[in-house]
Amino acid sequence: MTRFTFGGDKTWGRGKGAPGSTTILAENQQGFDAFAAKAAGAVADSLKLLKRVDGQLRQKSLSDKVMKYAQRYFLVGKTISPADLAIMQEVIVKTRNGLGGNLVMKVGVEDAGTMGFVNGKRSGGAAKANTKSYHNAVSSMDDGVAWRQGAIHVAGKYLDDREGVITVIHEATHKYAGTIDYQYFLSDGETPSGDPSATFDDKAKALMNADSYAWFIMKVGRSYFGSYNFNMFSE
Length: 235
Prior knowledge:
Layout: E1 6-12, E2 21-26, H1 29-57, H2 64-74, H3 82-99, E3 103-108, E4 116-123, E5 126-127, E6 136-139, E7 146-155, H4 162-177, H5 203-206, H6 210-222
Parallel strand pairs: 2-3, 3-7
Antiparallel strand pairs: 1-2, 4-5, 4-7, 6-7
Helix pairs in contact: 1-3, 1-4, 1-6, 2-6, 3-4, 4-6
């Protein structure tokens, strides 16, 4: 078992009503020195995106950008029903509140292809008791089963580009909102994964899908930042 024994707090007081810290843990001091600031930056950018998208979903008239990406990632029709909109808002609010609290992120060198994960535990249909300060209980959006969620893990090599932010948001929706992995998207953010057996045609599951939220938040959120530096992100 990997031991994350090197770490420290990187950010404090993320804004009015959301005091909190990001504690970065690494496998060794070299890893902490290399990745801590980048990981904290990915969290800060994720929170900015979540805040912006939360605000956009509360507008009386949803923008063309919101509708475009809602159709792509959540398979909604030409309009978003109040029920579907409520699901999207709930996931985004829970994710934003979770990341805005006292967050622990473990950054290390993971297996090839592993961008991030959250260790979830359940026993006998009920979540295991919390034993760490960063543990939280959440019910799966799919079957309602309770899980105890651990720290968010992110592979350090992805923190240099947009994949780090996407991974943080993806895993945070698992941890705080109980999303599932119904389908992944390739790096263009449009194409479902290359698994020929995979499908992306179920709206109910799309509204639970972690990667749908990660890409929707990235695409919609960055469109409203103006001069904020998201020039690395393509449409």
